[in-house]
Design goal:
The chain has about 575 residues and is of the alpha/beta class. It is built from 18 helices and 17 strands.
């Protein structure tokens, strides 16, 4: 335990601790732009430089480990002067704007550049801003890349490669011409991008953001000839409140529904309904494969980022994917068929909008295989923007309930937003369908938590179902390698984003492990407090099969609720 001094404060820290980490022990905030706790150390921005007694040059706090007797000054006159110079170079050479004008930036609410400018007391730059050199990359349905706002911090590069195991970004050129780009600068829509949006969470400047749909939604909300319906995903209700100053995990289901009605949506549906529908279709599909010798393991198909990942990197396993559409697409399909018929609505006049924690849902809605199901996808962040633009004090609205016929749902649907939740929900139904007995213990706690890969064996009658769960595409890659090496499972759930949908690329910033855990806990609490906790017991699910779909997997339900996927070149 070496003894050191930071700004005159004495402390002991473990060997291997960096100066940046040690400073936090004495409540000193050293600014940095390229550092993220879960990523490898890059040390490129140099904003975190500190002065060490006896050392000629300043040292980067993120990349310098402490040593016995170090006396460190984190905000000396020299350090503050150098930091300001470095920051001015950053904002001028990357066209952030010499006056730090943030009004035209998508990231102005949660911009780390702006926070650091305030921290080191810079409100203008002495250097002229370089003219824009690059066009925006709008090639993707999910993520927009604004290269003129990029500061070469490489956080997106490291997040995509180290956490997600995809690695679509690369660093090109040198000096002032340095550029973070994609292979041959083809654009994010033309490479192996999974559209997960985790790069957005890593970006400190707004150089990456989702492809916005909210202006199109505003247009149709103001068109009286259109019948505009909206659906909300399970994990949105435990994250939306963060945009209004609440703690992560604060449940705002009723306030959210009220706000959506005030925005002008004609119907507010809950995607939990179609999550229950997905469990029925997916559960029966799994039972059929086990009993009839179908392709095993069966992979879940709820996460569009995972779907695109497997299409690119493991196309030979496409027959193992469940053919079920995701809950988003199922609700769109049912709304434009069953609901429209029941209420005499012209399908051509119906606009289906979904609010999702996920940027990949935007790509999913555009897929040719099911492009007519959902018209527009808003991220949680986009809905926050719309509610604020409307002037609504959301958290003080009287709570309202979602519309029927698609309003009822089970607790099993709520936990869809958590890693392991789809698996747990499916097992609740599969157990009772196979055994025709009531499942006594509904919580499969071995499938919960933030371990990258979780495995479980579940006794269902005479059958031992071997299950595996992975979240984050880096973990999915490791799980696929295990399967290729001979690991045997019946059922595999994969979510593209760390933590599952609660950690989706469209969720409020910051989305880190702490916020993910709080959102997860809230979803499990919602499930625990519900009287109805099994998808197959949902009375509205029973009704839609009796009145419209027939049986799970029957021709009508298969035509409407199932799809196929395609191999993509690498």
């Amino acid at each position: 335990m070496p003894k050191i001094k930071i700004d005159g404060e004495e402390l002991e820290v473990e060997l291997g601790t960096t100066i940046l980490e040690a400073a936090k022990e004495v409540q000193v905030n050293i600014p940095t732009l390229c550092y993220l706790e879960e990523l490898s150390v890059y040390g490129g921005c140099r904003l975190c430089v500190v002065e060490i007694e006896g050392e000629k040059n300043l040292k980067p706090a993120c990349a310098t480990e402490i040593a016995e007797g170090m006396e460190i000054k984190t905000h000396s006159e020299k350090v503050r002067r150098v930091r300001k110079n470095i920051f001015e170079l950053i904002i001028s050479s990357h066209n952030i704007g010499c006056e730090l004008n943030c009004l035209d930036c998508s990231w102005n609410i949660s911009c780390e550049l702006k926070e650091i400018a305030e921290l080191i007391e810079i409100d203008q730059s002495r250097l002229d801003s370089i003219n824009e050199r690059y066009d925006d990359d709008n090639s993707s349905h999910a993520v927009v890349r604004k290269m003129n706002k990029c500061i070469d911090c490489t956080r997106c590069v490291r997040k995509c490669e180290e956490i997600q195991g995809v690695g679509i970004f690369t660093k090109a050129n040198r000096g002032p011409e340095t550029l973070i780009t994609t292979f041959k600068n083809k654009g994010m829509g033309n490479v192996e991008c999974a559209n997960c949006g985790q790069c957005i969470h890593a970006c400190p400047t707004g150089a990456l953001h989702e492809s916005y749909h909210y202006n199109s939604v505003w247009h149709f909300l103001n068109d009286d000839s259109k019948f505009v319906v909206v659906q909300t995903a399970p994990s949105v209700r435990v994250a939306l409140s963060e945009g209004f100053g609440e703690e992560p995990g604060t449940v705002a289901t009723g306030q959210m529904v009220a706000a959506l009605r005030r925005l002008g949506f004609d119907r507010v549906f809950d995607t939990n309904f179609s999550a229950d529908l997905t469990i029925m279709e997916e559960g029966y599909e799994l039972i059929g494969r086990i009993k009839e010798g179908g392709k095993l393991p069966m992979f879940t198909s709820c996460s569009p980022g995972w779907i695109k990942f497997i299409e690119h990197f493991y196309p030979e396993y496409l027959p193992h994917l469940s053919t079920c559409k995701s809950p988003q697409q199922m609700l769109g399909a049912v709304a434009k068929s069953y609901y429209a018929e029941q209420h005499g609505i012209n399908v051509e006049d119906m606009i289906v909008v979904s609010v999702m924690p996920c940027t990949a849902k935007k790509f999913e809605a555009s897929r040719l295989e099911m492009e007519d199901d959902v018209d527009f996808v808003l991220t949680t962040r986009e809905l926050i923007r719309m509610i604020k633009e409307s002037g609504l004090d959301m958290m003080n609205l009287a709570e309202e309930k979602a519309d029927k016929m698609m309003g009822a749902s089970s607790g099993a649907a709520d936990i869809f937003g958590a890693t392991g939740g789809v698996m747990e929900a499916a097992l609740r139904t599969a157990y009772e369908v196979i055994t025709e007995e009531e499942l006594g213990k509904l919580d499969f706690k071995t499938l919960r938590g933030l371990a990258g890969i979780k495995e479980a064996e579940v006794e269902i009658g005479e059958l031992t179902v071997k299950a595996a769960v992975a979240h984050g595409l880096g973990n999915a890659k490791e799980l696929m390698e295990r399967i290729e090496a001979g690991a045997e499972y019946h059922f595999v759930e994969v979510m593209a984003c760390p933590g599952g949908c609660v950690g989706g690329g469209g969720q409020p910033v910051p989305t880190n492990q702490e916020t993910v855990e709080k959102r997860l806990n809230s979803l499990y609490q919602i499930d625990a407090e519900k009287k109805l906790r099994k998808s197959h017991e949902n009375p509205e699910i029973k009704a839609i099969y009796e009145e419209f779909l027939g049986e799970p997997g029957a021709k009508k339900s298969h035509d409407l609720l199932h799809t196929h996927y395609i191999p993509r070149s690498i």
